[in-house]
Structure formats: structure tokens, C-alpha cells
Amino acid sequence: MHIDPLERKWVQVSLGMCALFVSIIMLDALFHGVNAPSNVETIDSRKIHLSEEFGEDNLGVQVAENGEITVRLVAGRYAFFPKEITIPAETKITFRWVSMDVLHGVHMPMTNMSTMIVPGYVSQVESSFPRPGEYPMLCNEYCGLGHDHMWSKVSVID
Ligand code: CUA
Question: Longest Cα pair distance anywhere in the chain, in angstroms?
């Protein structure tokens, strides 16, 4: 069977690209493991309430001695805990979420905030909010019959 040399060349190029992509994926899996492609930090979902970091009295907004602000939230059917947080505008804020049951998501309309909350992992996002106002923090992964009602209020103040 005759194959045009130019066509043969392009077949080789495309096969070479496939081989390159597959080997990048394989190498990445070898060195980084097969994980959610984000902050890879594990936590036992069944023992969240017993953990120091995500215990009930440690949730919400915390300001460290050096001024860094961290917000810790627990997602569970069908709410984020706490239900309301207040944070300053134009300040870098580190959000850390865990799920106590199933897969949830978090989305804040009109901001760049969006991530998945996978049971067994800590989801971490850094963000800042230039405009003061009230924002809903919505669950954007279907998690059950009460999914529509799963949200918290975020107040961004000057
Ligand atoms: Cu939680 Cu949908």
C-alpha cells in the first residue's frame, strides 16, 4: 500500500504527540500520585469534629499574629458551617474547607472563588475581594435533596 511521504510524516508527528502526552501523564502520576489536582492534604472525614483544626470552636475567621487571615469551613449536607462569615475587603484570605460526608463544591458568584470539596481532602483557596458587599457562598456540586439550600453568607466589609 502506498502512503504519501508527507502524510506518513504527519502520522508520525501526531503519534509522537500522543506518546508525549501519555508519558507526561504517566510521569506525573509516578511522582505526584493519582490525586485531586489541587492542594493535596488528606483528612479523615469521619473524625473532622475531633480534629484540632476543624473542631467546632476553631471554625470561621481567624487572624494570626502576623495578620494573615484564615477561614475554616466544614461542608456537610446541607450547609456550610459556620453559616455566616465577615471578612475585610482587599485582603488576602486563605480559605480551607473539608467535607464531613459527600462531595460538595463551593462557588461565590461574581468572584473567582470556585473549588470542589472532596471528602478525605482539605480544599484550600487563596482569594481577596476588592468590593465590599454581601456574597452568597453556594454549593455547586449536587449533593442530595437539600443541595439547593446549601449556602452561607459572606459579608465583605471595608
Ligand atoms: Cu453540597 Cu450540593
Answer: 75
The model's pLDDT over 75-107, given as tens digits with 9 standing for 90+, comes to: 999 999 999 999 999 999 999 999 999 999 999
CA-nearest of 57, 62, 67, 147 to 96 is 62
Q: Is the ipTM of this complex over 0.90?
A: yes
Residue 119 domain flag: yes
Among 45-54, 64-73, 92-101, 146-155, where is mean pLDDT lowest?
A: 45-54
How many CB atoms within 10 Å of residue 9? 11
Within 6 A (CB) of ligand 1 lie: 104, 139, 141-143, 147, 150
Closest ligand 1 atom to residue 77 Cα is 1
User: For position 52, what pLDDT does the model report?
Assistant: 86
Do 62 and 83 lie in a common domain? yes
Q: Going by CA atoms, what residue is nearest to atom 1 of ligand 1?
A: 104
Residue located via cell numbers 473539608: 98
Residue numbers of the domain that contains 105: 45-157
